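Let us work through a complete example step by step.
Step 1: write down the sequence.
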Amino acid sequence: MPSARFAKLKSLLFFAPIFLAMLAHCPRARASAPTHFDWRADTIAFSNDTVFSYGIDEAGQLTMHKKEKPPDYAHRCFVLARSVMQFHKFARFAPDQPRVSSAEYRQLIRRVSRVPVWFSEKKTYQRITIPGYENLNAFSRAYEHTFKEELGNWFPTYLRFGNWRMVGPFPRWGQQLAAQRILAELARGNLQAVYITRFPKMNHCIVLFDFHQKPNGDVLFDAYDPNYPNQLSSLFYRASERSFDFEKRWFWPGGRVNLMRVYLSPLH
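Step 2: predict the structure and record it as tokens.
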């Protein structure tokens, strides 16, 4: 019996270094960021549109042409990103409660969308209850027209003070600092709205809600893109270059973008 135990122990000692080496080369596992955000349920069901049609020429460059027919709901990526954050922070869905009238739902949408998005949840004291619907996606699908009327106009978003940073320089240390702060806020459970731009051809707002970090410092961020409302989107941070890459979209060929965090205060 002792010899059998010795043989078993010897076998474990032989395989232990191999097992530890395998663990060292595996990506570090991490629990999801505690934002409790579900892109299937916590997003607005309809899409933002653009005034221009976009395409990629033979050289791989982005082309822009004005649409013959103006879109019905455009220029509102900021509006939709802000609204998703407001409903996530300040609203509570109660599907077990009876539904109310269209006029009452209009008032509820207006109340949620008027809470400053940079407020903390504690400052609102009590979440605004949305009766009769399971989540934002279902609610916005049922009341699309009302949402479009009540969430706000696009024009004020173009006058935001923080927008004008897009014409300035974007030093690599600044992009690295932004990535670090985004990671820290997501780890605390706070959604992060970011403005990504390659002025003058692409300016867009998305919401980051989770991240997947590699041992080399690269990070894949999960995102809600108002132009792709019912699809998981992503933004990539490349640590070695201290830069962000946005995936290929119908309005963007894919590649490096400059990033600014927004909706942190009235000035952002």
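Step 3: interpret the result. The first strand starts at residue 52 and ends at 56.
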